Each structure stands twice: as C-alpha cells, then as structure tokens.
C-alpha cells in the first residue's frame, strides 16, 4: 500500500515545507471513458460501465453532452461517456494497481510524459486499453476501450506535482541528451 506518511516526510524535506497541510496531495482521481455511439449501442455502454466498475470497485456514472453539435450528430443531454471519481483508500488502491500492475504491462513503456501536468499542477494520463488491469478477464472483453485518468492535486504547481508523483513511484520519461 502507498505509505502517505513517508511520502509526506520525503516531500517536506525535498521541498522545504514544514506545514503538512501545505504539502501537495492528491485529492481525487477521475477515470473517464468516452463512448461516442452510446445512444445507438446500449450493450457497448453497459460493457464499458461494467469494466470501469470492475477496475475501480465503484459504480460508474454516465456523462452527458452539454450542448448539441450538428457536425458530430450530437444532441444536448445525450450520453457521451462514463466516469468514476475515487477518493481516499479506493483512490490509493487504484493508484497502486496502476503503478505496480497496469503500467508495467504496457509494451515499450518508457515512462510517463511530463506534458501530462497542467498549469494548476493536475496530472492526466491516457491508457489505450482496459485489459492492462488483471481484474478484467481477457477472454470476456467484448469492447476494447481506453481510459483517461486525471489526478486532482491540491497545494501545488508543476514542479511540486512532478515531485509528488515521482515520490509515489510513478516513472517519468528521461530526457535524451542531444
């Protein structure tokens, strides 16, 4: 299990912050899957919801279009995706499985891109297939879909977020010398 206390101690030393409330920390993790043709294919939507619930251990919610876009044949309030927000122990359990099980199963994995950190210090990464998680039996997969994983980090900027994520154990890509 991810040891939050030791991570906070390490961050306090490296960043020079004495107040533990001022340290960067992950508030929540949002896992999102886009399902464009969900209105037409209810079985695909149900399959995506089941796989996302299996991966996170929590029920998923549908996301709906905020406005109509004629070019995409999209109507307002139609289902466009599925999402789950995890916090607390489930969040750290998910991050540990992502770090120790899913990421090592990616072929030719060279690390996470630093471009995934935005100006506010939140981190987002995309995974192409849900079958990286062992909870989903490979022979039962009917619909292959990707995942967008966003970590909401508080009390932070780009440098602090990178330091936090490295301290947890996520590897970043090494810059190649030219």
Overview of the molecule:
With 178 residues, the protein is α+β, with helices and mostly antiparallel strands. The chain has one domain: 50s Ribosomal Protein L5, Chain: A. 30% of the residues lie in helices and 20% in strands. The longest helix has 15 residues, at 42-56. The chain is globular, with a radius of gyration of 18 Å. The mean pLDDT is 86.
Task: Kindly list the characteristics that best describe this protein.
50s Ribosomal Protein L5, Chain: A; 178 residues; 30% helix; 4 helices
Helix/strand structural class: alpha+beta
- The count of domains is 1
Strands across the major sheet, in which order? 2-3-1-5-4
Terminal CA distance? 38 Å
Q: What helical percentage do the residues reach?
A: 25-40%
Low-confidence stretches: none
Give the gist of this structure.
With 178 residues, this protein is of the alpha+beta class.
What is the fold's blueprint, element by element?
Blueprint: H1 4-15, E1 25-34, H2 42-56, E2 61-64, E3 79-86, H3 88-102, E4 123-127, E5 147-154, H4 158-168
Antiparallel strand pairs: 1-3, 1-5, 2-3, 4-5
